[in-house]
UniProtKB/TrEMBL annotation:
Assembly information from the UniProt record: Binds to RNA polymerase II (RNAPII).
Organism: Somion occarium
Gene3D superfamilies found in the cross-reference section: P-loop containing nucleotide triphosphate hydrolases
Function: Small GTPase required for proper nuclear import of RNA polymerase II and III (RNAPII and RNAPIII). May act at an RNAP assembly step prior to nuclear import.
A Pfam short name: ATP_bind_1
Transmembrane segments: none
Family affiliation: Belongs to the GPN-loop GTPase family.
Region (Disordered): 183-204
PANTHER family associated with the record: GPN-LOOP GTPASE 3 (PTHR21231:SF7), XPA-BINDING PROTEIN 1-RELATED (PTHR21231)
Keywords (A to Z) from UniProt: GTP-binding, Hydrolase, Nucleotide-binding
InterPro entries per record: Gpn, P-loop_NTPase
Name of protein: GPN-loop GTPase 3
SUPFAM superfamilies the record matches: P-loop containing nucleoside triphosphate hydrolases (SSF52540)
Keyword Hydrolase on entry: yes
Length: 204
């Protein structure tokens, strides 16, 4: 931490992005990242965590909810302002018949909202369906029901869609991050331009 503080000492009012490793255990139960965050805050650096999950996770509802639960665990462990991002949304197509338009060609646009604001009922098949009967007999049935209840009771996770081919999508994500960590809040307001009577006449 002494080395890190020395390296960061030359920055003032800069926007720093720390790209962390992808091993989820570093965020869910290992103390290193939480220690790093506390030291950054002690140095007066405003911190916001962004958790990325790829849109390909929508191909498998169980894999997706594994990502949701990992996000919840990391949020509780790090205790910092937090934004969840659904990345690679350019691989999602609105044409369900276009299977060659990306890894997620089978994912219809109308279904995306259930993933961006996770709908725990995605884990449960329709009543009376063949899948529902299979799930009822599964040894994981009670676990799935418990996960559904947990997410319903603590709706902490939602996702911002990020499409790197869409400038508006990038701007939306960036503005959320800025707002979350109050970036630029300490800047002085700009002085108004001095206008004389002739300028006002021109404006009219």
């Amino acid at each position: 931490m002494d080395w890190l503080e020395e390296e960061l000492g030359g920055y003032d009012d800069d926007y720093l992005i720390i790209d962390c490793p992808g091993q989820i255990e570093l965020y869910t139960h290992h103390p290193f990242l939480s220690t790093l965050v506390r030291n950054l805050q002690r140095m007066g650096i405003r911190t916001c965590a962004t958790y990325l999950i790829e849109s390909q996770f929508m191909e498998d509802k169980y894999k997706f909810f594994s990502g949701v639960l990992s996000a919840m665990s990391a949020m509780v462990n790090l205790e910092v302002p937090w934004i969840n991002i659904m990345s690679k949304m350019d691989l999602v197509t609105s044409n369900t018949e276009d299977s060659g338009s990306g890894r997620n060609g089978i994912r219809a646009t109308k279904d995306i909202a259930r993933y961006l604001d996770p709908d725990p009922l995605l884990l449960v098949s329709a009543p009376g369906s063949r899948d529902e009967k299979t799930e009822r007999n599964s040894k994981f049935h009670a676990l799935n029901r418990a996960i559904v209840q947990l997410i319903e009771d603590h709706p902490l996770v939602s996702f911002l869609p990020l499409d790197l081919t869409n400038p508006d999508s990038i701007e939306t994500v960036l503005s959320h991050i800025d707002y979350t960590m109050q970036y630029g809040e300490d800047e002085e307001p700009k002085e108004p331009t001095n206008l004389d009577e002739g300028d006002f006449a021109d404006l009219e």
